[in-house]
Amino acid sequence: MERFKLVPEIHLLLVRDGQILLLRRANTDYEDGKYSVVAGHIEDGETAREALCREAREEAGIELLPDDLAFAQVVHRADRGQRVGFFFSALRWRGEPRNMEPHKASELRWFPLAALPEPMVPYVRQAIERWRAGQLYGESGWDAARS
């Protein structure tokens, strides 16, 4: 019997002066047109923090070290299979964020944490709100997956 598998993801909460860096997804076949954070999948042989450092460089052109990241939240979601997303906030970084993947993100800009834009990837918005409330764990999509 084959073992059940989860898809591991990482997400970056990059905050400066009360604003969070968001990108608008494009041409990805998932939630295109909606805002999200710098994110990606953990590759074989990478830790979650190493994967996030790689994705930050690839998507936003910034340099992070694993020790620059603080755990923020984990989200277990039922969306296109089951996935577990690790959210980290950046304590510091080097470089000014810029859109390094215009073929996957039509926009990269700062938004006030207290006024997140619409439309936004729902589970990402919920994770940011829970993180701001001090919650470390969340679930998303389970009602729809069970119906």
Structural topology:
Layout: E1 7-13, E2 15-16, E3 19-25, E4 35-36, E5 39-41, H1 48-60, E6 69-78, E7 82-90, E8 105-112, H2 122-132, E9 137-140, H3 142-146
Parallel strand pairs: 1-7, 6-9
Antiparallel strand pairs: 1-5, 2-3, 3-4, 3-8, 6-7
Quick structural overview:
This protein is α+β, with helices and mostly antiparallel strands and about 150 residues long. It has helices at about 50-60, 120-130, 140-145, and strands at about 5-15, 15, 20-25, 35, 40, 70-80, 80-90, 105-110, 135-140. Helices cover about 20% and strands about 35% of the residues.
Helix content: 10-25%
Strand coverage percent: 35-45%
**Net shape:** globular
Poorly predicted ranges (pLDDT <50, ≥5 residues)?
none
Structural class: alpha+beta
The tally of helices reads: 3
SSE sequence, one letter per element: EEEEEHEEEHEH
The major pleated sheet works out as:
5 strands, mixed
Mean pLDDT: 96
Report strand order across the widest sheet: 5-1-7-6-9
Radius of gyration, taken over Cα atoms and rounded to an integer in Å: 15 Å
Distance between the termini: 26 Å
- SS elements, strand count: 9
Q: Your description of this structure?
A:
With 147 residues, the chain is α+β, with helices and mostly antiparallel strands. Helix content is 20%, strand content 35%. The strands form 2 sheets. A 5-stranded mixed β-sheet has the order 5-1-7-6-9. Strands 2, 3, 4 and 8 form a 4-stranded antiparallel β-sheet that branches. Strand 2 (15-16) and strand 3 (19-25) form a beta hairpin.
